[in-house]
Amino acid sequence: MCRSNLLKALHELTDSGALVVLPVGSDEFIKHIADEVIYLGKSYNIAELKNFNTAFFGEDWVH
Hints:
Elements: H1 2-15, H2 27-30, H3 46-57
């Protein structure tokens, strides 16, 4: 039931144009529902990730 409610919430958010960031410990569940999976290492560069997302989604991707 929890999975069902999570999927409904994710669909409502993405249907309204939201970018959903969902941190998970394993990709077994998320790889079946995500449009894109971004793997972050322990030393990822947040500025580089922000620049990548701005280039991909445009200037208004963060609200």
